[in-house]
Amino acid sequence: MIIELKNMHATSPDGRELLNDINFCANEGELLYVIGRVGAGKSSLLKVLYGELKPDAGEARLLDYDLCKLKRKYIPMLRRHIGIVFQDFRLLRDRTVGANLDFLLRATGWKKKKERSARIDEVLQLVELPEVRDKFPHQLSGGEQQRVAIARALLNKPEIIIADEPTGNLDRETGNKIVGLLNERCKQGTTIIIVTHNLDMLQSYPGTVYRMNEGGIENVTEEYNAAVEI
Fold first, then answer.
1. Whose C-alpha in 26, 94, 110, 117 is 20 to 30 A from the C-alpha of 135?
2. What's this model's pTM, rounded to 2 decimal places?
């Protein structure tokens, strides 16, 4: 099992309960969805997975990392195994798209400039944006920035990709292509976790479905599989 959370709890720095008795697991090459209303705890769950929020009770393991005991200095090592698509993109505004992607590759140990450049071209081609390499983020539309964020998540061929509303700024056709791309990565063995309000996606690309509500979580896969069969 690549991710396993058991009876996990997490609170905010001011003591508010964010996650309550979370049981969540993911296997290699599994496609998972996390759904729920705004404020249900989805973002807090993702923060636990990429090391920004430390659990304070229960168990939480991702790959070989114990997230309950993980020291801050090891968080960059954890994130080398995870591709993250943030809802607000988090692109560096003072450098081009190519420089944004190169920054991540250099930070994660890619030494040879020629290899970095080839990989950047490869991922931009995957998201159908080869022409934006020399543009700055502010020169792109919201949808284009979203696709660059997805390209960045693919750079290191990570074991896990966490995508927070990856189609939120995309038109329907482009959104379908992006989810199809993530689904292909899943078939190649990458574990994909998608937070979404787009329930049509669950029927187009079925997977394991968790619903969050008031900081709790429930596996509702059967409910959505039944909807697909009908």
1. 110
2. 0.90
